Amino acid sequence: MTATGGSDALRIGAFLEAQAAEAGAARNTQLAYGRDLKDAARWLTGQGAGLLGASRAAIEGYLAACDAEGLSRATRARRLSALKQFYRFAFEEGWREDNPALRIKGPGRENRLPKTLSEADVDALLDAARTTGRPEDRLRNTCLMELLYATGMRVSELVSLPVAAARGDPKMLLVRGKGGRERLVPLSPPARLALAEWLVHRDSAGVADRLTGAAARALFPTRSAAGHLTRHRFYGLMKDLGVAAGLSPAGVTPHAIRHAFATHLLARGADLRSIQTLLGHADVATTEIYTHVLDEHLTELVNDHHPLTRSPARDET
For the whole model, what pTM was predicted? Predict the structure, then answer.
């Protein structure tokens, strides 16, 4: 169980490189693993163990400290997952003779239903996108929102779309999802129209002539290091649109639109397997959460409108 030399930072770096090369881990996944492992390394070093030389008891102590710190179950589960994968890699590389995290059980998932938006809320957001800001802002934001609601894409998938995927008035878009997995998602007529109108502006001489490098290949180009609209910037845009639409900005996020896409499809008769494919879920169990969202919505509908749920006081009037 003794480390064979080298710092924790170097070992973490080697692990992340292997994840990118062999497992096809997305950039955001690598960043999350890196943050989690560095946090664990700091704590374990403070206990005199270090990341590579930690025992099962030391790792359990770290997870208990995360719990005491008030971190959510989801965050603690993710950190344990990162540790398990790191120690499995360490064992395979011969850095350790065991995997001390192998038999540690995670905290489980919280039974929270995803926040979603009603069809009226989405319509209000789309109207806000069409009418808020400068003409070029309206074209871009309408395209972003129509594509997001028409496809249920993850925000990272949407903002990083290459312009080549949108050429030729496509009826479907090829999307690269988690782990490099690709899938085709159909476009609604409003999304195709918004995309075509945005491309006319994006390809105009005054705009296209200024695009170089990665930005020239992006559907939504910016001056960011990646060349495309960042997730952070898009989150901010959605908050502004939420305010313009008269909605609480706290509930207006790209993921809320993704949830709305799935929930509204399910409510109108789509089957779970089709929704799983459209969302890019590896496991249909992940998609099944939307049946609970729909059940909760139907229960509220009955409680609010069915005559048998009227209060006695109302019946006496």
Answer: 0.60
